[in-house]
Amino acid sequence: MKKYRSWAFIPPIEQKAVRPQWLGFKLPDTNEGEKEKSGSLLPYGNGRSYGDSCLNVKGTVVDSRSLNRFIHFDENTGVLKCEAGVTFADILAVIVPKNWFLPVTPGTKFVTVGGAIANDVHGKNHHQDGTFGRHVLGFELLRSNGDTLLCSPDENKDFYAATIGGLGLTGFITWAEIQLIKIESPYIKVETTAFHGLDEFYALSESANKNHRYSVAWIDCASSGKNFARGLFMAGDHADHTPQGKPNKAVQAEPKLSIPFNFPKLALNRYSIKAFNALYFNKNSAMSAGTSYQHYDSYFYPLDGLGDWNRIYGKQGFYQYQFVVPFSEKATMEKILNKIVESGLGSFLAVLKEFGDVDSPGLLSFPRPGICLALDFANRGETTLKLAAELDELVIKAGGAVYPAKDVRMSSQAFKAYFPKMEEFKAFIDPKFTSDFWKRVNKES
Ligand SMILES: Cc1cc2nc3c(=O)[nH]c(=O)nc-3n(C[C@H](O)[C@H](O)[C@H](O)COP(=O)(O)OP(=O)(O)OC[C@H]3O[C@@H](n4cnc5c(N)ncnc54)[C@H](O)[C@@H]3O)c2cc1C
Known about the structure:
The protein is of the alpha+beta class. It contains 12 helices and 21 strands.
């Protein structure tokens, strides 16, 4: 038995795994009747999902990380074909020196191509380029009966739509072909503006989303009164040249610093979080306001520079809560923020971003037009779970959704409300595939 875990350490598990080495492999022959017990399968990427969507504690995970080879890269067209276990970090190391970049990237480069497809991940350019799945030209899906399906917007379209954002349940993606975007430099030209309150955020976001490829804000979820919803807004574009004196390096592969041990429980509390947020806001609003050039690595992946940062929450782990509500629900967003501030459970890093109206290709894709907030809650047991359940109620009422990739506790009623195409999706699930997340949200209620 090997240790497999999700990023937030809840629940920490040991489980059976198989590790295919070469394309053309067969999935293990398990007993279908045992699906709820030990006979089930689930693909595993790099475990960067926060909750239990990448875990299958009673069954077996099919670990994709040995399938880490490039198959073809056309430097003229920017079309890349690679095995599903290749990570975004691997890809960047090869493509950036050739002036290409990922079409969409999440806030960590340590995700696999298969994992990025299965959660249809989004990035800071959602308002312009939509989700990652939109840039997937095709992939091969291996089913447990040995069939392989070539899926693309033209071929096996239904499996293509079910597998993008399909939480690993429709089969194992063995390879994928993606369309990259052209860049002139590894640097991002960033405009940083401090804001006070949600109205200022909305105004900055509206203007940035018309004029810039990337936009995102950091927001303080711990302060109230005149500091309520203060934050830093960052709009960015790929620079058209590498600024003088800046190294033209492609990628920083290893974190510079690591958290060597789990933080004790007492280190994180209402006061330390508030103090950190005030310090971060004051330092950065004074130092980084205006235009600067940032290497893409620090712009897109600030947390990757701090190895094992998830240990900061201690061995009890943490919850991440990421949700989106429609633009018409600004009052709900304000109510939710107030609730988080009042609870004193708000985290160091809360990220606020507007999703645009670019359609997501997956039946279960999370992104949809609206305002999206992501934040961590240290695990304080029932207190944290109660707050999350109250937030769920507000999100459901607003017609929004919570992101499965970040979840380990949403109820089946909540999932059904967030993902109305669930019933349509079920027809594409591989009979031998399941996950701990799916077992929870697929319960009859
Ligand atoms: C610091 C940090 C920042 C993040 N920022 C963002 C963000 O900005 N936007 C965003 O969208 N997400 C974000 N995420 C979440 C992350 O991008 C997703 O959870 C991603 O899917 C993880 O990929 P993985 O390779 O680690 O896959 P895993 O977490 O191991 O698995 C994810 C899902 O993919 C399935 N899967 C994996 N491989 C395959 C395969 N070969 N075939 C079929 N299914 C497969 C699994 O079964 C599982 O359901 C962030 C995560 C972290 C830790």
